[in-house]
Design brief:
alpha/beta; 11 helices; binds (3S,4R)-3-hydroxy-2-oxopiperidin-4-yl beta-D-xylopyranoside; Beta-xylanase; polysaccharide degradation
Length: about 300
Amino acid sequence: GSTLQAAAAESGRYFGTALAASRLSDSTYSTIANREFNMITAENEMKMDATEPSQNQFNYSQGDTILNWATSRGKQVRGHALAWHSQQPGWMQNMEGTSLRNAMLNHVTQVATHYKGKIYAWDVVNEAFEDGSSGARRNSNLQRTGNDWIEAAFRAARAADPAAKLCYNDYNTDNWSHAKTQAVYNMVRDFKSRGVPIDCVGFQAHFNSGNPVPSNYHTTLGNFAALGVDVQITELDIEGSGTSQAEQYRGIVQACLSVARCTGITVWGVRDTDSWRASGTPLLFDGNGNKKLAYNYVLDAL
Ligand code: XIL
């Protein structure tokens, strides 16, 4: 294939990007996005603060803009994200206990119902585990509602949209030997054994020199897939430039292609200048929309 989406489709996979609604009027941006990608994630527009700015008053305008842009062009959408400790609306940030649990479940139900039948996969819960060596859950207001908050969110999402794949999504879960990776693996294994509805695990894959692409990535993806879930690279970006960056991108693609249930790869933005990273050049297109060496390595590896 001559584009990322066409090349990925040769092995039955997708290639996606995150899009910002505010940038869709930039024709360089939207032309690249339309040409190269067939899976779209809203970079911010479907998050809790965007979709429920006041309690029980939902606003889908920006999320719908992304969804309609994608579906009218024949693309699929990953929903991101139903429950997360970050980017909560102000009214939720200081809530605790039963009222927060109920507000979270209502949010999951309402948003998943609004988008019912239109979402390929939802990141139902995002970033619920601690960094470092503890393997513990992250201490958040949602976690303090009870350790079962994650499975409660998954059950609510399944009830609202039975057709959507339901994913757990996190970062620093790429290296198989890290405690956080093991902790998420144990949760997914437990969910599968008890019949909690989970279909996929998302690996954000934000890499930099302090957090390089691990050489055992195929092991991590393969071990999760062996639990009976799909795995997806959901927010890929790699700081750096030139051959080093391109080789790391190639390593990610090769790791995904080596695992039958790795169903697709999404990069977290189009051009370097669109990246959430404050500095650096972590994406596949430069600020002028030109293909970088990393793009060529990815296309060749697909
Ligand atoms: C980031 C967006 O890219 C930024 O625009 C926003 O200011 C903060 O969030 N993990 C996630 C994503 O799951 O939602 C985050 O996106 C990046 C880290």
